[in-house]
Design a protein that fits this description.
Order of helices and strands: HEEEEEEHH
Bound molecules: zinc ion
Mean pLDDT: 87
Helix content: 10-25%
Structural class: alpha+beta
Number of domains: 1
Strand order of the largest sheet: 1-4-5
Number of strands: 6
Low-confidence stretches: none
Largest sheet: 3 strands, antiparallel
Radius of gyration: 13 Å
């Protein structure tokens, strides 16, 4: 997907940076392809963010969460195996509040 297509989809201008290694100690140390934002429950490619005053935000223009708070998609699928391996941009994949602790720190 081209950057301009992504920007149309996210509704904001974005930066395509380096994919990062994702946090949680127990497994998902690799550079996963997709991250999931706990605030808007949407996914985006690892490395993509929206720059706002030097802070890396969730790329979706209507979401103020920090990119660093996004979680690896495999961690979300761990609790929701019915979710697709390759999530669709712009689709919300909600988790019940109680499940968030499962995907957080061990
Ligand atoms: Zn978001």
């Amino acid at each position: 997907m081209k950057q301009s297509d992504m920007e149309r989809m996210f509704g904001a201008s974005i930066v395509i940076g380096m994919a990062r290694r994702t946090g949680a100690a127990w497994s998902f140390r690799a550079k996963v392809r997709n991250l999931w934002c706990a605030c808007c429950a949407r996914t985006f490619p690892n490395g993509v963010y929206r720059d706002e005053a030097g802070l890396h935000h969730c790329p979706y223009g209507d979401c103020d969460a920090l990119e660093a708070d996004a979680q690896p998609w495999p961690a979300i699928r761990f609790t929701r195996p019915n979710y697709p391996e390759h999530p669709t941009l712009g689709i919300r994949y909600p988790l019940p509040e109680a499940d968030l602790s499962v995907t957080g720190r061990p």
